Amino acid sequence: MDIRKIDDDYSVSPQIDAEEVDIVSLLGFKSIVCHRPDHEQPDQPEFSAIAARAAQLGIEVRHIPVVPTGLTDEAVGSMVRALNDLPRPILGYCRSGARSTRIYEQALQPQ
Questions:
Q1: Is residue 53 a contact partner of residue 22, using CB atoms and an 8 Å limit?
Q2: Is residue 4 within 8 Å of 13, Cβ to Cβ?
Q3: Burial zone of 14 (CB within 10 Å; 0-12 exposed, 13-18 middle, 19+ buried)
Q4: Which residue of 29, 58, 66, 77 shows the fewest CB atoms closer than 10 Å?
Q5: How far apart are alpha carbons 42 and 48 in whole angstroms?
């Protein structure tokens, strides 16, 4: 897994699968936020599979899809709420980690 630490509370990675959620748990993450829409690519694991395994391990999850063309105010607002609600540290993921990084940076900006 290619996990990049942004700060003590938040890290990002490319797409994960249900088996990798076990590694996420072992690394101490308390929450996962998926920023990738389901069915973006044919071989992509569905968020429901990630969420099911995370629930078995006691990891909280949120699905805040961000399309590759850009962030919406709604998505940033959802991320702000997730950051306020979810236990930390949090792992955000998308296809490459870029959208998860951008939305985190935007969510930290004064609204």
A1: yes
A2: yes
A3: middle
A4: 58
A5: 15
Q: How many domains does the chain have?
A: 1
Kindly state the tokens that stand for 67.
Answer: 């399309």
How far apart, in whole angstroms, are the C-alpha atoms of residue 60 and residue 7?
Answer: 19
Q: Which residues contact 41 (CB under 8 A, 6 or more apart)?
A: 95
Cα–Cα dist 82/61, whole Å: 9
Cα 67 to Cα 24, 87, 98, 108, 111: the distances in Å are: 24, 25, 11, 20, 21
Structure tokens at 71: 């962030």
Can you tell me the distance from the alpha carbon of 42 to that of 76, in angstroms, rounded to the nearest whole number? 26
Domain range for residue 34? 4-108
Instruction: Give the Cβ contact number of residue 16 at 10 Å.
Output: 21
